# Entry
Amino acid sequence: EAGVTQFPSHSVIEKGQTVTLRCDPISGHDNLYWYRRVMGKEIKFLLHFVKESKQDESGMPNNRFLAERTGGTYSTLKVQPAELEDSGVYFCASSQRTGTGNEKLFFGSGTQLSVL
Amino acid sequence: QKEVEQDPGPLSVPEGAIVSLNCTYSNSAFQYFMWYRQYSRKGPELLMYTYSSGNKEDGRFTAQVDKSSKYISLFIRDSQPSDSATYLCAMSGTGGTSYGKLTFGQGTILTVHP
# Structure
């Protein structure tokens, strides 16, 4: 079974440019999460999709970040325009809907974003 | 103050040692407690999962949760060089769609040397 796949693995862009990160969850997983780890900090929640619907986007830093999950399959996270403080590792995770707390998240390997 | 505090280490132990990793937290709403292991250039991988207070054992790994003290631990017995990784504690609340909204500690870097 394929795991959670993220593209690209690394991205280096200049301040002010646009970057789009992609996440392919495990097939059949309705839940999809985005997390981010900036240098020296803990991994932090960004947002949560259930199928194509945003359930919780309370962790999105500002309106330069836009996440989509058209059709409830893969998801994209766009940063426009990118700022220096957006540098970090962006993780995607997916899980099956269980309706209970016994929800196991499977993480991708992350996208290392460097904004210069 | 962070919701979850975890000593980032680094922690270096000889092979065969017992390793103790800990986190404290401040949010009493947390009900689900997890330990993740993360190898270099990989994503976090779930190791242990515990609901509310108590102990859970899986092979060489034991997770403990003390909600009265807001303190969780992970013990690794007979540590192996392959256990060298970053260990992250994570927690979540209850209800609806919040189970996967995890609050992480900063992670402890563990090295087990032969």
About this structure: Residues 55 and 64 of chain B are 4 Å apart (CA to CA). Chain B touches chain A through 28 residues (CB under 8 Å).
